[in-house]
Amino acid sequence: MNGYNITTLNEFIIRRQANIPYAKGELSNLLHHIGIAAKVVHKKVNKAGLVDVLGEAGEINVQGESQQKLDVFADMQFTAALRNSGECCGIASEENQEIITFDDELSLDGKYIVCMDPLDGSSNIDVNVSIGTIFSIYRRISPRGDKAQVVDFLQEGNKQIAAGYIIYGSSTMMVYTTGLGVNGFTLDTGIGEFCLSHPNIKTPEAGKIYSLNEGNYNKFPEGVKKYIKYCQEKDKKTNRPYSARYIGSLVADFHRNLLKGGVFIYPQTASAPNGKLRLLYECNPMAFIAEQAGGKATNGDIKILDIKPETLHQRVPLYTGSKSMVEKAEKFLVESKK
Ligand code: AHM
Ligand code: MG
Q1: Is the CB of 65 under 6 A from ligand 1?
Q2: Alpha-carbon separation of residue 276 from 56, 96, 268, 317 (angstroms)
Q3: Domain end call among 167, 198, 229
Q4: Whose CA is nearest to atom 17 of ligand 1?
Q5: pLDDT (tens digit, 9 = 90+) per residue, 56-104?
Q6: What percent helix, strand, coil does the chain show, rounded to 5?
Q7: Shared-domain flag, residues 190 and 216
Q8: What is the CATH number of the domain that holds 266?
Q9: Statement to judge: residues 271 and 244 lie in one domain
Q10: Which of 60, 62, 75, 123 to mutate to test ligand 1, by most ligand atoms within 8 A of the CB atom?
Q11: Residue of minimum CA distance from atom 14 in ligand 1
Q12: Of the candidates 34, 44, 45, which has an alpha carbon nearest to the alpha carbon of residue 82?
């Protein structure tokens, strides 16, 4: 048997920090605290059937969706962890209409702000299907020492310092990037540590999976309808027909396609011209990870990371995954507009 040969998330973060001149450990500390909250939420998710955390908490969140108890729990845990880190002066969360500022002396001096979806895929909580947490970290624009302001959060995705997600699935994993590639850590529940299991993730240039909610087919733009037909046609050279896979949890759908290759689409429709997914805490972090893994993320027109946010809870269409598949889908969109 091999001896001790694991790299924990914290070791990895610290080693990475040593490669960055003048790094003071602030980002490392922030990521460390996100890891702690992830473990707490993992524990709760795994007990979901046993204790009273299922079901709706009775409040409606800012998107008009009813909040489930685990959403509320996850929001509280991540908010507390970020506050306790002392590195973060404010957060934007799917669960809150306005930004939350941390006004203690340490946090006011914090360099970073965090956008997060504390529990994504909430419709899957009650049915034992994978859910996740998504986070995105920026350096603040407002002066340190001041309260965080909305402008700190309305930065383009290409300004992200780090982004990642935690998937609570058949095992719990944290996948993140700081712009130096993508790395995945699996939670070893025996020792309570995230351990490096997927170093330097690269997504396949092309895959065999297409993921979108085909129930909305009639409302899709012509280009997307044609692309779906293309995915279903037989062609040996391009491995078609592709398989349709759709969980309805962005984190889980994205994660599968990242590892196996594939395309994920949440398009615009006539009734929802910006799609459903949120730019700041769903699309931007996933786009950063996709690009760092060699994939692509666009709104069908321009790179997600180049979109200038206008509001905190802004929605955008999302086309992401294997580079050649996203490009093919975009081609169909362009052709159908001619
Ligand atoms: P949520 O943040 O309320 O959980 O909603 C976002 C989720 C994503 O995880 C997923 O990709 C999408 O909504 C699924 O939407 P639909 O049910 O319309 O296919
Ligand atoms: Mg969400």
Answers
A1: yes
A2: 21, 17, 8, 7
A3: 198
A4: 248
A5: 666 666 766 655 688 899 999 999 999 999 999 999 999 999 999 999 9
A6: 35, 25, 40
A7: no
A8: 3.40.190.80
A9: yes
A10: 123
A11: 248
A12: 34
Once rounded to an integer, what is the mean pLDDT over residues 211-239?
96
Report the nearest atom of ligand 1 relative to the CA of 121: 4
For residue 3, being part of any structural domain is answered with no
**Distance, first Cα to last Cα, the chain:** 62
**How many CB atoms within 10 Å of residue 143?**
7
Look at residues 165, 198, 231 and tell me which one is the last residue of a structural domain.
198
Count of domains observed in the chain? 2
* Burial of residue 156, with CB atoms counted within 10 A of its CB: 0-12 exposed, 13-18 middle, 19 or more buried: middle
Where are any strands of DSSP class E within 121-208?
131-139, 162-168, 172-177, 182-188, 193-198
Q: Which residues 6+ apart lie within 8 Å of 151 measured at CB?
A: 141, 142
The CA-atom distances, in angstroms, between 60 and each of 21, 44, 57, 115 are 45, 22, 9, 20
Are 105 and 53 within one domain? yes
The C-alpha torsion from 264 through 262 and 94 to 26, rounded to 10°, is -150
Q: Taking the alpha carbons of 173, 176, 182, 185 in that order, is the dihedral positive or negative?
A: negative
Per residue in 269-325, pLDDT tens?
988 999 999 999 999 999 999 999 999 999 999 999 999 999 999 999 999 999 999
Dihedral over Cα of 245, 251, 254, 255: its sign: negative
The structure tokens 């995915």 sit at 231
C-alpha span between 228 and 219 (Å, rounded): 13
What is the Å distance from ligand 2's center to 238 Cα? Answer: 32
| Tokens 């914290």 -> residue | 10
Among 75, 167, 73, which Cα is nearest to 114's?
A: 75
Q: 88: domain CATH number? A: 3.30.540.10
Q: Are 195 and 170 in contact (CB under 8 A)?
A: no
* Residue at token pair 């995230």: 194
For residue 229, the enclosing domain spans 209-336
